[in-house]
Amino acid sequence: MFRKSRFVFDKIDTSSCKGVLLALQAYLDGELDEAIARQVAVHLDVCEMCGEEADVYVELKRSMMRYTPSVDRTVVERLESFAERVVVTEGTTEEDIAT
Ligand SMILES: [Zn+2]
User: Fold this and answer.
1) Residue 86's domain is classified under what CATH number?
2) How many A from CA of 1 to the centre of ligand 1?
3) What spacing in Å lies between the alpha carbon of 17 and ligand 1's midpoint?
4) The whole model's pTM is what?
5) Percent of the chain residues topping a pLDDT of 70
């Protein structure tokens, strides 16, 4: 699969929490280069703080997929606007590839 959009994460400092957290979302979305993704995975393994942060992102993504009725309304709305931003961004990218 060819991806035109390349994140600016070709060079991140995966030995620092800051670098890992910056790339975390792209990592979880599978957008990172394999080599970098592996380094992030290693960091998440050894760093408790970033590991927890990754769990939060995973939970966030999960609740975006299946809207649980128990979730607070404002939280859902925040997730919805976040999801819309993501969809718009990715939609633009898909079009770029198609044309
Ligand atoms: Zn860390």
Assistant:
1) 1.10.10
2) 30
3) 4
4) 0.55
5) 71
